[in-house]
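JOB MANIFEST
job_type = single_chain_structure
chain_count = 1
residues = 259
[input]
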Amino acid sequence: MNLNLKDKVYIVSGGGKGIGEAICRELAAEGAIPVIAGRARDAGLNLQKALENKGQKSQVITCDLDNAQNCQMIVEKTLREWGRIDGVVNNAGVNDGAGLETGVEAFAESIRLNLFHYYDLVHYALPELKKHRGSIINISSKTALTGQGGTSGYAAAKGAQLALTREWAVELLPFGIRVNAVIPAEVSTPQYENWINTFPNPDEKLANITKNIPLAKRMTTAGEIAAMSVFLLSDKSSHTTGQWIIPDGGYVHLDRSIT
């Protein structure tokens, strides 16, 4: 399907790895230009090289996303390079285990690291988004809906991202800017694999998870999250805004005891 994204420019935070990398690859395959923003310099450059080998364009901007000035810099560098911004994919974040017993400082830091840059990037990109009737995707997490335990900061940030999705969808209606959230559940990424490997019996832990995923008893792929995200960015979903989309094989909403 031609999503009419050729030469459109999208900032993807955390674009060098995992779900962000998959979104960048999907955007480039559709002829768009992903701006790979985040601190994973080598991963970003390796991805850029892989895209170049396919004749696809991209930009790498390496920085931490933990302060507003860096987010402003990302927007400014993108405009200097390409002259436009058509959308923002807020994706970067880490489930850092800041729970109730970790302390108030760790909780506040988790909120700052996982939430503030979602606002900052959109704030600084807003004039361009208005100009081009752009689109925003917030990558959230099932933890915002189901809880997980031991991760108060991350869960709170992810819930706030869903609230901002609805808030921005309302605020930006007059400008034709669509805002949607994608909510991954159990997604096969390097970060997820690292987490699984912290358990004494990783294979057993993974099997216990996948057996509870109703559709096909398997993990969602990063490519499936990317396909949904890029579709939502495109004008093929031109009347979709303020939505929370959950491509998770039924994990959140179907009875996990289904066999």
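[summary]
The two ends are 34 Å apart (CA to CA).
The first strand starts at residue 9 and ends at 13.
exit_status = 0
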